[in-house]
Amino acid sequence: MAAANSSIAEPGRLHPWLRALLAGPCAVGLTVLIIAVMPFWVPKGSGGVDHIALPLFFMPAIWGLIFFYALLDRSLGRIVIIMTGIAVIHLIALRAILFG
Questions:
Q1: Which UniProt keywords apply (predicted)?
Q2: Which residues contact 26 (CB under 8 A, 6 or more apart)?
Q3: CB-facing half-sphere around the CA of 95: CA atoms within 13 A
Q4: How far apart, in whole angstroms, are the C-alpha atoms of residue 63 and residue 61?
Q5: What distance in Å separates the CA atoms of residue 48 and residue 96, rounded to the nearest whole number?
Q6: Collapsing DSSP states into helix, strand and coil, what is residue 1?
Q7: What is the pTM for the complete model shown?
Q8: pLDDT tens digit string along 15-46?
Q9: Closest by alpha carbon to 71, among 15, 7, 14?
């Protein structure tokens, strides 16, 4: 019976690949999107450069948080929902910033 169904992809085999996709390219893309929007909501500070310096300073922490969340959460559906929600919020903010 197992040999007859060997051509059908088991859902358990896809989970490591989906998790790697979420923790790899999707985490990098979401980090870039967050870093692109951060200068517009971070205060400029007394020197006038905090809104540029802080996103660059926190970029590894943001990427690490997204990366480890994608690796450690048990539910792939929850990871997708949260990452998509964050991306949509930042895309709406970026659209409002760029196009008024």
A1: Membrane, Transmembrane, Transmembrane helix
A2: 70, 83
A3: 6
A4: 5
A5: 23
A6: coil
A7: 0.80
A8: 889 999 999 999 999 999 999 999 888 888 88
A9: 15
